[in-house]
Amino acid sequence: MAKSSFPIEYSHNLPHSDRMSTLSQSAIAKTVDPDSADSIFQQALEWYQQGTVAGFEQAIPLLKTAYQLYQEQGQMQQSALSGLLLGIIYKNLGQLEPSLEYVQEALAFYEQSADRVGMADSLNQMGLIYQVQADMDRALDAYRLALDLYQQVGDTGGEAYTFNNIGVVYDRLGQYQQALDYYNRALPLWRDVEDGYGEATTLNNIGVIYDHLGEYDQSLQAYEKALLTYRTVKDRLGMARTLNNMGLYYDAVELPQQALTYYERALPLWQEVGDRPGEASTHNNIGYVYANRGEWQEALSYYQQALPLWEEVGDRKGKASTLNNMGYVYANQGKPEQALEYYQQALSIRQAIGDRPKEALSLYRIAQVQQEQGQLEGALETLKPAIAIIEDLRIKVASQELRTSFFASKQDYYEFYIDLLMQLHQQFPQQGYDAQALQVSEQARARSLLDILAEAQGDVSAGVNPTLLEQKKKLQQQLSLQEERRIQILSRSHIQREAQEIEETIKTLLDQYRAVQALIRVSSPRYAALTQPQPLTLEEIQTQVLDEETLLLEYFLGKERSYLWLVSSTGIKSYELPGRETLEQSARDFRDALTIPIQRIRRKVMEKTAFALSEQILGPVAEELGDKRLAIAAHGALQYVPFAALAVPDLPEYTPLIAHHELVNLPSASTVAILRRETQGRSRAPKTLAVLADPVFGQNDGRVSSTSRGKAQPLPPDLERSAKESGVLFDRLPYTQQEAESILALVPTPERLEGFGFRANRELAISQELSQYQIIHFATHGLLNSTNPALSGLVFSLVNPDGEPLNGFLRLHDIFNLNLPSELVVLSACETGLGQNIKGEGLIGLTRGFMYAGSPRLIVSLWSVDDQATAKLMIDFYQTLLKEGKPPSQALREAQLKMWETNQWWQPYYWAAFTLQGEWIDYSTSRNDG
C-alpha cells in the first residue's frame, strides 16, 4: 500500500489561557492562627502555584476547608474566591463537572455583589471549561460577556486575557484569520500592562496559527520569542508547551531528528507539572516522527500511550487526533479494515465537536483507503465534502498572503482529487471525469490571483474606518523611507550590516501593512458583498476563453503521475505524463543548458535537452497541435520553462516551438476570463506609448554633475560586491536608451512619453500620468526576491542630477497600488516573470501586481537577459506591433523568430526568455473607444 506524502496529523497542546486576575490581586495575608481560613487558603494557594498534579491534589482539601470556613464566617467574597480556585484546579485535573459547579457558584455570588471583575474572571473560567467540552458557542458567549465587563472597569490585562481566549476558540474552529486578529489585539495590551507571561502565551498561540497556515518560519519566530520569556519567568508549563510546538516546526520543515529532540525536552516538563493533555500531545507528536520514518510499531506504541491520557482528561479533539494517526499506521501496514475503523472513530468525534479542518483530514484519509481498495467512486464521494471544507476555510482567511500559504498546505487534497478523477476517466472514458479533473486543476491553481482580480473591480476601501486607511498610508510612507535609507548607505562602511537591518525593518513594516490590509478587507462592506470567483468548468473555458484558433495546454504535476489536458473550443483530450520528479529534472536540465557559457557545447546540450523535455510534455499531443495558438497553463517547474525554445516534436533537426506556434502563458484559464470581464467596456487610454529607460543608478554615472561625482568615493571591491548582493548597487544598462529611442521613434511625439535618465524615476512610475498610455515600457533592472515576493520589483533612478540619493525602488506592494488601465505592460528587465513558487498558486511576482493594477497582458522575462540582445528583440517587437498593427503575441513571435534566424542571435538564451502572460486577443480590435 503506497505511503501518502501528506504529513501525518499532529495535535497541538491547547494554547494556554488561564488567568487569575482576582487571585493575583488578592490581599489575603497570612495570620498568626494557622487554623484560620486565610492561613489555610494561603497554604492552598502555595500548593496551586507549584503547577504540579501533586500540588493540585494537596490544594484541594485545604481549599474545601477554607471555602467552608469562609461561608460559616460570612466572608462570601473569600468563599467565592476559594470556589473559583477549586474550579480552576479541577479543570486542570480534567474533572470538568465539579469544576463547572464551583465556577458557577462563584459567578452567582459575584453577580449578587455586582463585582464585575469577579464575574469576568468566572465567565472566563466557564469559557475554558466549555472549550474542553468542545461547546464553542457557549465558550464564545462566556468570553464576550467577560470582555464587556473587563472593558467596563478598564481592566487591560483582563481584556488581553479574553482576547487571547477568544482567539483560541477561533483556532479550534479552524477560523484562523479571526484567531490571528484576536491574538494581535491581545499582544499590545499585554505589553501595556507589562505582563511578560501573558505576552509569551499569546506569542505561542500566534505561532500555532502560523503553523496551521503553513507559514512555518513565522511560527518558529513566535515560538522562540515565547520560549525566551517563559524561561525568564521560569514557567515550566509554558516552556513545555513551546518546546512541543517548536518540535512541530521541525516536523513541518522535514527535520525529524530536531523535532524529536524538542519533543523529548518537552515530555519530562509535562510530566513534572502533571499536564496530561500536554503529555498526550507530545506522545502523539513523537509517534508522528516515527510514523514518518516508517517505523510503524514504534509509532503505535507512542499513540497507545497518548490515547488513555486524552480519555482521562476528556479531550475529544486530542483523542481524535491520535485515533486518526493510528488509522494512518494501519493503512500503511496493509490493514485497511483496521485503518477505516480508526478513521471513522476520529471522523465521528470531529463532526461532533465541529473540528472542521480535521474532519476534512479524516475524510481524505478514508478516501485514500477506499482508493487503495479499488472503490474509486466511493472515494470520490468521500473526498468531495473534504474539498468543500478546505474551500470554505480558505475564503475565511482575509489576508491574501495567509490565504495563499493555507491553500498551499492543502495541495495534496487536490492532487489526490485529480488523480482519482483521472483513474475513473480511464475506467469510464465517456463519463466526463477528465473534464471534472480539469476543473479541479483550475480550482487548485492561482486562486489568490483570481481573488485579487475580482477584488480589483471594486474599491474595497469604500466604507472602511478612516483610521485603518490612514494606517495603511503611513505604513506605505514608512516603507518608502526605508528604501531611501538603503540608498544612503552606499557611501558608508559596514554596508552589509546596515542593509540587513533595513531589510528586517522593511519585513516588519510589510507584516504590519498586510495586517492592516486584512483588517480593511474584513471591515469593508464592498469586500463582504463580493462574490468569490469560481474556477471555470470545461464548457466555460471553451466559451469564455478559447477561440477556434487557440488550444489550451494545461499541465498538472503529481508525485506519481502528471497530467496534460488539451482543450479546444469544441473538445477535450487528456494524457498521463511522467511523475513530478522526472519532469522537474528534465525542466532543470533544459533551462540550465540555455546558459552554458561555451557556445558549441551549449547548442549540443540545449538541443538534446529541448528534445527530451519536449518529448515528455508535448510528444503525446504533437499530432493534435496543427498550427494553432497555444495557451499554456504550466505547473510546478514547468513555469520556468521557455516553451518557445522547446523542440517541435518528431522533427529530425531542432526547430523551436515558436516556429510553428504563437504562444501565450497563463496562470490559469480562469484568470483570462476574469481579465476579460475586468477590461470589457473599458475606455482605452488616449495616448499610445510611455517608456521609462536607462535610469541613473549612482553618483559614478557620467550623467551626474561633475561636482557631485568628485565627492563620491568608489567603494572597495568587497563592499561593492556586498552592495550589489544587497540590491543597492546597479550597473548602467547602456543599450536601454538605444532601445527606447528606437521604439519611441515609431510613435508621433504627442502620443508618447519619454522618461530617460533622471526622469526614469519612481515618482514618474507611480504617477497618474502613466495611466494615459495604452502601452507602458520599462527598460531597467529587475529585482527578484523569491523568499519575500513583496520585495521584488523594478529599479529606477537612485540619484538626482546633483548626486543626491532617491528612493528608486518600485516594489510589488507599490505596484498593487498603481492605477494602470493599460493594454500592455512590457518589463524589459531581468527575471521579471519569476517570483516565489508557491504550491497551488504558481509564481508570485510582478505579473500579478500589474494585472491587479489594470493591465490584462504583460511581456516578462524568465532569466537575466542580455542587454544588447534584448534591445534588438524589443525594437523588432515594436516595429511589428506598432507599424504592422499585429497583436502582441504575434509580434513577439515574429521578433523571436527573426533573431533565431540570424547567426549572431540564434541561441534561445538571447530571445526565449520573454513570454506574453495573460490575454492574447488583439487589444487594437477589442478595446472600447469610449
Automatic annotation (TrEMBL):
Protein name: CHAT domain-containing protein
Key words of the record: Coiled coil, TPR repeat
TPR repeat ranges per the UniProt record: 120-153, 160-193, 200-233, 280-313, 320-353
SUPFAM superfamilies: TPR-like
Coiled coil spans: 465-519
Keyword Coiled coil: yes
Keyword Coiled coil among record annotations: yes
Region of interest (Disordered), ranges: 700-720
Sequence ranges assigned to domain CHAT in this UniProt record: 608-919
InterPro entries: CHAT_dom (IPR024983), TPR-like_helical_dom_sf (IPR011990), TPR_rpt (IPR019734)
Pfam family, one: CHAT
Top-level taxon of origin: Bacteria
